[in-house]
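Notes, p. 3: input format for complexes.
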Amino acid sequence: MIIPVTCAIILFEGKVLATQRSESMNLPGLWEFPGGKVESGESPEDCLHREIKEELNIKIDLWDRWDFSEHSYQPGKTIQLIPFLASYKAGELILSEHAAFRWLGLSELFEVNWAQADIPIVQELSRKWESIQKNY
Ligand SMILES: Nc1nc2c([nH]c(=O)n2[C@@H]2O[C@H](COP(=O)(O)OP(=O)(O)OP(=O)(O)O)[C@@H](O)[C@H]2O)c(=O)[nH]1
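Output follows (136 residues plus 8-OXO-guanosine-5'-triphosphate):
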């Protein structure tokens, strides 16, 4: 089974938002880009706007869709993590599900313990960091 999950790489003032999964979620304590499972009949973009509003109470603009990262945390169940580059648009950030958040600069990207599926995406972000900061 492949489970499509969207996630947002949210940029603001030269930093990127990372959120920590709470005890009530899968993979508790690990860090991720916020987002969630795509519901049937929903586009990845609509899913991400919905999840970000639900989880963080903010609005974002989506810029670019990156290649997905696939990871199996358990046999027969693969997460297909679809990242979108995004920027913060409006609203006060209030966590409804996560335990914590951090705005990370380039040198801090690997300070948090990322979920496995996110690692290739964080590596790509690190490689593209300078050009992304120029363009967004
Ligand atoms: N949102 C999100 N989920 C991720 C990331 N990386 C990663 O491995 N996952 C995994 O993808 C799955 C997404 O589930 P979720 O719990 O965030 O999504 P959801 O709110 O729609 O699920 P639910 O309604 O079943 O609780 C989880 O198994 C989570 O551990 C990530 O960067 N963002």
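Helices lie at 44-56, 119-135.
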